[in-house]
Amino acid sequence: MEIHPYLSEFIGTAILLLLGNGVVANVNLKKTYGSGQTKLLLIAFAWGLAVFVAAYIASKSSGAHLNPAVTLGLAFAGKFSWIFVPGYILSQLGGAMVGSWLCYIIYIDHYRITEDENTIRGTFCTSPAIRNFKNNFFSELIGTFMLVFGILFIANPNIDLNNSPIDNFGIGSLEALPVGLLVIVIGMTLGGTTGYAINPARDFGPRIVYSLLPRKGKKPDWKYSWIPVIAPFTGGAIAGLIYHLIS
């Protein structure tokens, strides 16, 4: 896809400053998840590598969307058939629930001796560093926009589902690594406000699993739960629409 050079420079420089200044803000400002901590670095790299491994495995069969916001964004961009969107989203949600449950089983002895319920919930789903729904929503929207917008430039039309007349974009084996790097940089730069869910299935599915655990004093925080679902969907859709407009 070709973009006018002026527009390309505008978009590229805006992204450069968004992410570049973002990491400085995340590290230096008070009460961000990156402030005075090294854990965010480990988490960001681990999530990025997890995306790489998962995408590499799923890429040849499904295009490895692994995220309802990505699926929706590709559909809005005209790069994925709408007929497959519901099935993809349901599959992603189910996979997220099973994966989080398996993690719980592996660490079950450690869950039993961990008393802080907020810490336990944090191993399943996200929560804001500062609770401000308007800003939390905007943070998740922008983070997901960057993810989907980046994927649209990285992914290739490599999936043919039942000879669909619409090119079905997806993450191929070669694109899995740069998408993993994209997730890492989003976590380091924009993840300090909400923990960067940027994936409705990643947050909602594990939150359901957490709410079903046989524990006293659970805090699933359903009042916040709509933000890491609706905001990523919105960011993904906007990314797809903008890509469609400039392509």
Give an account of the 3D structure.
The protein is an all-alpha fold. The chain has one domain: Up-down Bundle (Glycerol uptake facilitator protein), CATH 1.20.1080. Helices cover about 70% and strands about 5% of the residues. It has eleven helices and two strands; from the N terminus they run αααααααββαααα. It has helices at about 5-30, 40-60, 70-75, 85-105, 110-115, 115-120, 135-155, 175-190, 200-210, 220-225, 225-245; strands spanning about 155-160, 170. A two-stranded antiparallel sheet has the order 1-2. A hairpin with an 8-residue loop joins strand 1 (about 155-160) and strand 2 (about 170). Helix 1 crosses helix 8, helix 3 crosses helix 7 (about 135-155) and helix 7 runs antiparallel to helix 8. The longest helix has 24 residues, at about 5-30. The N and C termini lie close together (about 5 Å). About 40% of the residues are buried.
CATH level 4 superfamily: Glycerol uptake facilitator protein
> What series of H and E elements makes up the topology?
HHHHHHHEEHHHH
Radius of gyration: 18 Å
Tell me the helix content.
55-70%
**What is the count of β-strands?**
2
Helix/strand-derived class? mainly alpha
**N-to-C CA distance:** 6 Å
Mean pLDDT: 90
**What is the percentage of strand-forming residues?**
under 5%
Strand order of the largest sheet: 1-2
Spans of at least 5 consecutive residues whose pLDDT stays below 50 are none
What is the count of DSSP helices, taking H or I runs of 4+ residues? 11
What is the architecture at the second tier of CATH?
A: Up-down Bundle
Quote the CATH topology: Glycerol uptake facilitator protein
Describe the sheet with the most strands.
2 strands, antiparallel
Tally of structural domains? 1
Shape: globular
CATH class membership: Mainly Alpha
